[in-house]
């Protein structure tokens, strides 16, 4: 049954009412594809229905773009559909503000922000359904948007789906993104794999009856025997590891056997190994040892008829459902058993599931980050001591809890921190000592030549901010009083570019200043090299001017100076 069917049959139900409401709200709006906007809302809700989520989530799926793209407010939605639905939509709207633009170091903190702001896992599930449909209609968007959204999907949402145990969705998202991220590789695969698939499928069709017969003789009644083609994106990843040699890929097409019980899984494995010898080292028991995301199955690779290598995946129907729908499947199972409302379930059985989810996240963190960061993430007990604030451009800034706009400003750049004169949070002017919370959009106002105030030291939270404020204050003093030193040492942080020392010395000598020494040490600073220059100058104004000029050199990241 689709969302539309439900709306027709039961217009008074929550889903029915949401359908009619969304239809009115989006009336006249069109998607980039030219279709009515409502189609997108309905497709999103249909995915949620397919994942067997509760009515509130499906209704929120229908309404997810209403607050963002129409004149209707969250208050109106709350009046009409209750607190829970409006809470889910508020979450979706918040997630919509987070954008990934392709800086490696951001991936980790964006994923954390998404998890932290999702508060309720259903928010993330709606977002995934929304993204799934957006990816299916990506071809209608302008080229630059296609690339950004595909990259975000590939780097952020597909891994999140995987971590929630939604393997199928994760693979679909990766596959949909793949042609936009790597068009050449996609073309190559299309041209080179097609014939291979067809050969393999013919062969598998031939051996399928052999498998079915052997199983029947042992008394095993499989629910389904099918073969599946390997996805383009995962095939490409594998090919890269095997010198692009297709001959070396054994699971280009693999058998999948669905049986009724765990016992039957192992029995089936035995039957297959009796038919054909297993390939050494390729038997994987993910039932006894599930993957970190909860995936359960038996895998084996055998040398079958005509010495052809074939992969088999064997699992129960429940394992299959979980492999397809992951965390959503857990909710669906509880629904069938208890039939209670989501709120009731949340306090009874869902606790157990949520604990499992948190465990999965911990494993994920373990895999992803170095041990120091992992320890920190354990200590912070999942984001409790961390906040994730957002720049107006959608960049995520990761800060300790209790941080202020001043900490935020220094995290972006020391100059922005030093010249900060005011801040807006979510469009409202706030005092500089205001405490930020996750999901806040922070805008910093600066004024050229402005200096930090010593009072900031009383409220800033990060060491970075304290360090810069103190440094700046001591330099301010240096300007007010006659400077006794005769020389200045510049420290220039730069990428190791040929000719950088020449560029630096040209700038200094053009200002008619003598250079006492210049050396490029092997000391690195996050991939940057440090160049130290000592010159005969003690006029703070001139020093500042030179520092500015040095900073404008290509590849220079930071310039510091001190009087010596
Ligand atoms: Mn949407």
CATH architecture of the largest domain: Orthogonal Bundle
Ligands bound here?
manganese (II) ion
User: Stretches where pLDDT falls below 50 for ≥5 residues?
Assistant: 331-359, 364-384
How many domains in all? 4
Relevant CATH superfamily of the largest domain: Hypothetical protein af1432
* CATH class categorisation of the largest domain: Mainly Alpha
Structural class: alpha+beta
The overall pLDDT average reads: 81
Strand percent estimate = 15-25%
Measured on Cα atoms, how large is the radius of gyration?
30 Å
Q: If you consult CATH, what is the topology of the largest domain?
A: Hypothetical protein af1432
Termini separation comes to: 78 Å
Shape: globular
Largest beta-sheet characterization: 5 strands, mixed
State the helix count. Answer: 24
Q: What's the helical proportion of residues?
A: 40-55%
Describe this structure in words.
- This protein has 564 residues and is of the alpha+beta class.
- It folds into 4 domains: 3-179, Orthogonal Bundle (Hypothetical protein af1432); 183-326, Beta Polymerase, domain 2 (2-Layer Sandwich); 384-481, Ubiquitin-like (UB roll) (Roll), CATH 3.10.20.30; 484-564, ACT domain (Alpha-Beta Plaits, 2-Layer Sandwich).
- Helix content is 53%, strand content 15%.
- It contains 24 helices and 14 strands.
- The chain has a 5-stranded mixed β-sheet. The protein has a 4-stranded antiparallel β-sheet with strand order 12-13-11-14, with helices on one face.
- Helix 3 (38-50) packs antiparallel against helix 4, helix 10 runs antiparallel to helix 11 (167-181) and helix 11 (167-181) packs antiparallel against helix 12 (183-218).
- The longest helix is centred in the middle third of the chain and has 36 residues, at 183-218.
- The protein is globular.
- 33% of the residues are buried.
- The model is unreliable at 331-359 and 364-384 (pLDDT under 50).
- The structure holds manganese (II) ion.
- The site of manganese (II) ion (MN) has 4 residues, from loops.
- Manganese (II) ion binds at residues 40, 64-65, 130.
């Amino acid at each position: 049954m689709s969302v539309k069917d439900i709306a027709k049959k039961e217009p008074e139900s929550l889903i029915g009412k949401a359908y009619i409401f969304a239809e009115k709200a989006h009336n006249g709006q069109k998607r980039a594809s030219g279709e009515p906007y409502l189609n997108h809302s309905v497709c999103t809700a249909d995915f949620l229905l397919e994942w067997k989520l509760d009515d509130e989530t499906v209704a929120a799926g229908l309404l997810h773009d209403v607050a963002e793209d129409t004149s209707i407010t969250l208050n109106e939605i709350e009046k009409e559909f209750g607190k829970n639905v409006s809470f889910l939509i508020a979450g979706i709207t918040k997630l919509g503000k987070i954008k990934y633009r392709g800086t490696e170091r951001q991936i980790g903190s964006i994923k954390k922000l998404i998890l932290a702001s999702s508060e309720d896992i259903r928010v993330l599930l709606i977002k995934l359904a929304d993204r799934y449909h957006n990816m299916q209609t990506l071809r209608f968007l302008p080229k630059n948007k296609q690339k950004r959204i595909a990259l975000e999907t590939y780097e952020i949402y597909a891994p999140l789906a995987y971590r929630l145990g939604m393997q199928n969705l994760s693979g679909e998202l990766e596959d949909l993104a793949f042609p936009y991220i790597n068009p050449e590789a996609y073309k190559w695969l299309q041209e080179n794999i097609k014939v291979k698939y067809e050969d393999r499928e013919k062969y598998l069709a031939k051996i399928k009856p052999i498998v079915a017969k052997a199983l029947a003789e042992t008394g095993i009644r499989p629910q389904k025997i099918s073969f599946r083609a390997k996805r383009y994106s995962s095939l490409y990843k594998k090919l890269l590891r095997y010198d692009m040699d297709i001959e070396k890929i054994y699971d280009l097409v693999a058998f999948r056997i669905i049986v009724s019980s765990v016992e039957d899984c192992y029995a089936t494995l035995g039957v297959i190994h009796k038919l054909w010898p297993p390939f050494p080292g390729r038997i994987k028991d993910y039932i006894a040892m599930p993957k970190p995301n909860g995936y359960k199955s038996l895998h084996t690779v055998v040398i079958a008829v005509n010495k052809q290598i074939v992969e088999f995946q064997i699992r129960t129907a429940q394992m299959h459902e979980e492999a397809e729908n992951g965390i959503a499947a857990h909710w669906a199972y509880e629904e069938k058993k208890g039939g209670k409302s989501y709120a009731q379930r949340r306090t009874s059985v869902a606790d157990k599931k949520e604990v499992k989810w948190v465990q999965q996240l911990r494993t994920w963190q373990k895999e992803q980050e170095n041990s120091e960061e992992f320890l920190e993430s354990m200590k912070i007990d999942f984001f409790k001591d961390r906040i994730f604030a957002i720049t107006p451009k959608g960049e995520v800034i990761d800060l300790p809890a209790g941080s202020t706009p001043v900490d935020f400003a220094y995290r972006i750049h020391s100059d922005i921190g030093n010249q900060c004169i005011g801040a807006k949070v979510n469009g409202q002017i706030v005092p500089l000592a205001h405490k930020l919370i996750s999901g806040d959009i922070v805008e910093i106002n600066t004024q050229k030549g402005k200096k930090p105030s010593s009072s900031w030291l009383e409220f800033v939270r990060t060491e970075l901010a304290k360090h810069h404020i103190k440094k700046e204050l001591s330099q301010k003093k240096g300007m007010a009083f006659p400077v006794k030193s005769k020389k200045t040492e510049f420290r220039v942080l730069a990428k190791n570019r040929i000719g950088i020392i020449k560029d630096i010395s040209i700038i200094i000598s053009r200002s008619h200043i003598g250079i006492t020494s210049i050396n490029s040490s092997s000391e690195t600073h996050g991939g940057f090299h440090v160049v130290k220059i000592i010159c005969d100058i003690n006029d703070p104004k001139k020093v500042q001017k030179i520092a500015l000029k040095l900073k404008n050199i290509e590849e220079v990241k930071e310039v510091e100076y001190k009087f010596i």
